[in-house]
């Protein structure tokens, strides 16, 4: 699949993060609860050293709760990492993150100096929404289109915490390759640069495998289609998406399937589990 990973921006962001990170007391990374592994910044483990870290699994409302619990345990295997879940408009839960941040740096005297916290997250993950909730005012720009968050800024938060916002860049987690598809499904990659139907086909195959009942119920399909493509054909038939000559309009199906999946209309769906990622990584190791 051809995905444009914005390499120029990435290089600049990497340099910025590398420069700023050593000055930080704590790092908050906002992940998409539906794809915690694919939405991680792959550079952070090597750049952060001993700096404690909170991973926020955001958009919990869209993810499969059992899978999210598995991810929390998996992420906390990493030294110095706490994983919490979040959904927007939960102000008290969001501010709890600040309390946790302070508790994770117990030696820091906040009477003397501010606790410096860096916040990271790929575009569209909900980072700006979280920042605004924490600040109690519109301190960061939000929007539906990725890459709204740009310039770096320090934001004053309660408990003498200074929050350093970093640009929301998409990082090249090129392997396993499936991570790119999952990012595309989640909406992190601009729709203009992705192969829409290809991404929807990946989603259709996965849904049939992992959430068969939910996807069939949503589209009123009685019999299990043989594969993702057959599922897309069946959706075309049910929704009457045809081109001239009665050919299934797969572009239209792709659009509807991805939009409905993103909006949570198929129910709470996670796009990866620790077991799936484990298998994909083993397969890569075996092949190399
Ligand atoms: P940013 O690019 O990471 O700063 O993302 P934004 O904060 O602008 O949010 C991107 C989109 O995700 C917006 O439409 C938000 O309303 C939506 N969003 C943010 N948090 C959540 C959440 O917890 N659940 C759901 N369903 N949507 C969210």
Task: Record keyword descriptors for this entry.
disordered N terminus; 2 domains; binds guanosine-5'-diphosphate; single chain; alpha/beta; six-stranded mixed β-sheet; Rossmann fold
Number of helices: 11
Rg from alpha-carbon coordinates: 20 Å
Order of helices and strands: HEHEHEHEHEEHHHHHH
CATH level-two architecture of the largest domain: 3-Layer(aba) Sandwich
What does this structure look like?
By secondary structure, the protein is α/β, with parallel strands linked by helices. The protein folds into two domains: 8-165, Rossmann fold; 195-278, Conserved Hypothetical Protein Ylqf, Chain: A, domain 2, CATH 1.10.1580. It is 43% helix and 12% strand. The protein contains eleven helices and six strands. It has helices at residues 7-20, 44-48, 65-75, 91-104, 127-135, 178-186, 196-210, 212-219, 228-239, 250-262, 274-287, and strands spanning 26-32, 53-58, 81-85, 115-121, 153-157, 161-165. It has a six-stranded mixed sheet with strand order 3-2-1-4-6-5, with helices on both faces. The longest helix has 15 residues, at 196-210. The protein starts with 6 loop residues before the first helix and ends with a helix. The structure holds guanosine-5'-diphosphate. Guanosine-5'-diphosphate binds at residues 58-59, 61-62, 87-88, 121, 123-129, 142-144, 148-149, 168.
SSE layout and pairing:
Blueprint: H1 7-20, E1 26-32, H2 44-48, E2 53-58, H3 65-75, E3 81-85, H4 91-104, E4 115-121, H5 127-135, E5 153-157, E6 161-165, H6 178-186, H7 196-210, H8 212-219, H9 228-239, H10 250-262, H11 274-287
Parallel strand pairs: 1-2, 1-4, 2-3, 4-6
Antiparallel strand pairs: 5-6
Helix pairs in contact: 6-7, 7-8, 7-9, 7-10, 9-10
The structure holds guanosine-5'-diphosphate (GDP).
């Amino acid at each position: 699949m051809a995905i444009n990973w914005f390499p120029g921006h990435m290089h600049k962001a990497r340099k910025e993060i590398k420069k700023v990170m050593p000055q930080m007391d704590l790092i908050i990374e906002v992940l998409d609860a539906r794809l915690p592994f694919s939405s991680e910044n792959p550079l952070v483990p090597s750049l952060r050293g001993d700096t404690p870290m909170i991973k926020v699994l955001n958009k919990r409302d869209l993810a499969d709760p059992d899978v999210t619990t598995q991810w929390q345990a998996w992420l906390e295997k990493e030294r110095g990492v706490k994983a919490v879940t979040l959904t927007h408009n939960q102000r008290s839960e969001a501010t709890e993150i600040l309390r946790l941040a302070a508790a994770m740096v117990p030696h820091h005297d906040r009477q003397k100096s501010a606790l410096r916290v860096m916040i990271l997250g790929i575009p569209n993950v909900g980072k700006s929404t979280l920042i605004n909730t924490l600040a109690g005012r519109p301190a960061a720009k939000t929007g539906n289109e990725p890459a709204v968050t740009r310039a770096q800024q320090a934001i004053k938060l309660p408990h003498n915490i200074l929050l350093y916002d970093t640009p929301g860049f998409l990082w090249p987690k090129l392997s396993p390759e499936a991570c790119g598809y999952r990012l595309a499904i989640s909406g992190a990659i601009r729709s203009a640069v992705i192969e829409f139907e290809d991404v929807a086909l990946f989603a259709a195959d996965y849904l049939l495998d992992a959430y068969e009942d939910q996807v069939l119920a949503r589209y009123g399909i009685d019999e299990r289609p043989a594969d993702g493509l057959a599922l897309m054909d069946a959706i075309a038939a049910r929704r009457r998406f045809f081109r001239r000559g009665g050919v299934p309009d797969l572009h239209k199906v792709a659009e509807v399937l991805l939009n409905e999946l993103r909006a949570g209309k198929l129910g709470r769906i996670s796009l990866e589990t620790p077991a799936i990622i484990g298998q994909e990584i083993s397969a890569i190791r075996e092949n190399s």
